[in-house]
Design a protein that fits this description.
About 35% of the residues lie in helices and about 30% in strands. The chain is α+β, with helices and mostly antiparallel strands. The relative contact order is 0.14.
Amino acid sequence: MFDSKKSTIAPAPEVSTKHSEANPSSGKTKNAPVTRVELLLKQVLGGIAACAAAGLIGCCVLFFSLSLFNLEAIGSQSLVADLSNHLVAINTSFTGTEVVLFGVVEGPGDIAVVVTGPRTAVTVRRKDRVAGIWINQDSVRFKSVPGFYAVATNRPLDAIVNSSVLARHQIGLEHLALTPTEPTSPNQVAEFRRSLIRGKQRQGLYGTKLGQVSFLGDRLFRTNISFPANVPIGHYTVSVFLIRGGDVMTAQTTPLVVGKVGLSFEIYDFAQRRPFGYGLAAIAGAVIMGWLASALFGRP
């Protein structure tokens, strides 16, 4: 009989599927994870660079298109004008100033420039002598009267356009619309209208003659707009008319502001906004100045 012996089979050795970690002292590194990170970073950076390049190209194309559009728009305009200064600053040393208007015109034509100041209602009174004393008699109140009015042309008005066109655009003192607030006879309106214009001319606020528009070549033109020391503050309009064939072809209006600056403006603004406080401050200042003068120069 044979002795049956149990045979034992040794277990197979375990095969490790883990990546061998590098020993810091051996100088070996893990290559697979680092490669994936670098590849991911390269893809991200490449996408960002592509987007940036596409955006830059798009911006350049847009800017170029807008530039061409503006150039075409400017080229299509037959009249372009502007001012050397859109603000006339009035301070304590203001004695008057000049503003230069310059522009360019496409094709032949004449230029008329009309400067209109802030509009307010004005009452014109006529004085008569009664018993040796001059007193106010009749009066006419006009609405929307310009505080400043000046006209400049390159040629006399009657040589470039007819009176109906001048009246429609109110070019020239003869065609300036001055309407009374109440019904008045035409003769009385004409008389008081002439008196109003004469008074404005004596103050230097209405021009007594036409200004000169000078052409520099065939397209460029310029003119000087003079403002006196007593120019009213407010918003002005500078209208430029291109006249061809006895009619206005196109017109352009440019704004202009005349305002006070510095300490005088602060005092004026305070007096307008808070008249009661301004009156109290003026009285207090007068009392203090009188007391100081009495204390310094008064008799002991």
